[in-house]
Amino acid sequence: MPEVMKIEGGHLLEGEVTISGAKNATVALIPAAVLANGPVTIVGIPQIADVDSLSEILQILKVDVKEIDRDHLVIDPSNMENTTLDQDIVTKLRASYYFMGALLGKYGYVKMQMPGGCYLGPRPIDLHLKGFEALGATTTYDKGCYTIEAKKLVGTKIFLDIASVGATINIMMAAVYAEGRTTIENAAKEPEIIDVATLLNKMGARIRGAGTNVITIDGVNSLNGCFHEIIPDRIEAGTFIIIAAAVAKKMVINNIIPQHLDALLSKLQEMGVNMTIDVDKVTIEHTDKLKGVDVTTKPYPGFATDLQQPLTALLTQAEGESRIDETIYIERFKHCIELQRMGANIELLNGSAIIKGPTQLDGAKVQATDLRCGAAMVVAGLLCDGITEISNVYHIDRGYSEIDEKLKKLGANIWRETIEVDE
Ligand code: EPU
Q1: Atom 39, ligand 1: which residue's CA is nearest?
Q2: What is the dihedral of CA 105, 108, 109, 114, to 10 degrees?
Q3: Domain count, the chain
Q4: Ranges of residues in the chain whose predicted pLDDT is under 50
Q5: Domain check: are 215 and 352 in the same one?
């Protein structure tokens, strides 16, 4: 039976929270591990549904997966078989597309279904496919399945029309065993890309330049198992920082890399949020008055599109007018409709939202239409008067590790209920 999340708003939160390993790194590191010829140990695995889905895909591929500890996976592809991935599980998340690059790189052949993930408007994968083709692969699409194959992958220069995170990682994975040098120009620079390149290099790959817009990959013949610890989740960290700015008396957010959050932290400073930034933590204390700001989402190191949604909920409490311009996914505004149900004053334009505040939000029945909309509903639920009921909680569980427990420890009144659905 489906679950709803309920939050009684109006409580000030206090205490410390520790951020988990990065979802968007983890979901690429797990497929990347199959490129090795021995066991890969990954530590810092977040407790999220996307990890369960990827583990299921690994099992289909006869990859041995052992959970040694709650956050500690050993992935052993020694007896792996390259089977067709046409099961429903593949469509449950976006990141299943990383098996395209990994299996193509390892076997020169992959057949799999279209990936799924949050609906944020159209999310094409043309740049991934063009990259594979540039390396010498042919791609065909038939009855919902992609077949990508190559007799031999040969390194080449690939210019990405858009600095896509997914395409950069997928091409990197396809190129690790290719003959000669692959150069990705206009590569995405997100920290998760550096994390994946670090894992691959520990396995024996020769990748240089990850984190800049030119990445070179010199092909190798063999990759070994290794040990890797995932970077902290900058989006989970950003979400808790926003929660703290909204409802904390005093909150410490531990296990963060502040540099990964520069764009958010400087916006919050501009809003007047009272915070102290340390080497690996940030402390936020209650602020009475917040100022409205303008935000434009950009690829890293610009303001992350994934934080635009939770920030919108906070901006309903800021004085004056705020504006959000979304340049990555221009339809990523479903959270605004849900916030309007709670009383927010938001005007939607094409690709932008104008928020006028401060407004008192009232508890309502709302929907997590996608993962970060869910995060925005949690922020709003904590802020509002009365009880908020969030449906489609599975979206939140896809990407936030134990969010209810973390919030409860900080003093939030948050719980889940199962609901009857009319047939
Ligand atoms: N794009 C194309 N063609 C492609 C690939 C991308 O036109 O072949 C466009 C997209 O439509 C979008 C832009 O390029 O307008 C950037 O997309 P990108 O490929 O960078 O996004 P992604 O790899 O699909 C990852 C994260 C998203 C995050 C974006 C942007 C994962 C699994 N997902 O998606 O995370 O919003 O980068 O930073 O890493 C989330 O965590 O909630 C989430 C949606």
Answers
A1: 24
A2: 30
A3: 2
A4: none
A5: no
